[in-house]
Amino acid sequence: NITVEGTKCKVQWEAETSRLAEQLNNLSTACTAGFAEELQLLRAIMADYKEHVSKTLDLQLRDLRTICTTQVPKAMQVALQAATADYKKHVSNELSLLTLSKPTRVHRYIEGWTDLKKHALESGFESLDGPKSNMYGYSVCQEVTLKRTDCDVSLGSFISIQPGDNDLQLEWPFRKVFTLGIMHPKDPSKVISYKVNPVNCGDDLQRCFLRPKGKENVGCGNGNLTTPEKLEMDGFIQSDTLHMFLEIEP
Asked: Which residues form the TRAF1-6 MATH domain (predicted)?
């Protein structure tokens, strides 16, 4: 039965490509921690595998089309050709996950720093929600807080996962490593940052990474990333503006 065989083939390739994509993404996270040579080898292996899968898929689809044109009625041929095109697109998308890429970074510029700090000192707490960004399909934003302590103000930064259009197609809980940070306006190498691997977070934080239901999740990050005094002393404030970023790894 052509339909049954086509379905079996589709399910098999989906399972294999999805499983390999997850394994290689996990392996790439480990490699980027300090194994440059191994990372280059991994990239080469991935490139070879992608080429192999593409060629094999083309051969199987070509054989299937040959069978269709000789044994299947015209109406079924049209339907099967459409299904084949959709499946090939799906596999292409899965293979794209195998490509190691640089982390995705979203920048945020907080203006009116002097007034913001003043309000935090007066009220005891200020919170700023950043704009939503689509990063690897997830809808996220960077939250910034200023909280008055006994004699100073602490600046915090958090990632908040928002409800998004792609949520039903994404992996949950959220498992991508992310970094919250502050950029120096004149020296790009001078960064204040806080890196989080959701897998290593405690049970009390796992709710931050579940699929959001109707509203944004509680933010996860560092409430004491730095202080206004340190930022100003080290030259991080320029033109009354603070440059922050959110980075998510593949």
From this structure: 134-243
Residues 225/156, Cβ–Cβ less than 8 Å: yes
Architecture category of domain 104-248 in CATH: Sandwich (2.60)
d(CA 31, CA 132): 30
The CA distance from 197 to 13, in Å, is 30
Query: What pTM did the predictor assign?
Result: 0.62
- The two structure tokens encoding residue 119: 């309000």
Paired tokens of 9:
């083939």
Task: Spell out the domain ranges in the chain.
Answer: 2-96, 104-248
Q: Determine the Cα–Cα distance for residues 128 and 157; give it in Å rounded to an integer.
A: 10
Residue 156 Cα distances to 130, 220, 221, angstroms? 13, 10, 8
Residue pLDDT, tens place only, 146-194: 999 877 899 999 999 999 999 999 999 999 999 999 999 999 899 999 9
Helix (H/G/I), strand (E/B), else coil: 102: coil
- Among candidate residues 63, 111, 57, the one with its CA nearest the CA of residue 237: 111
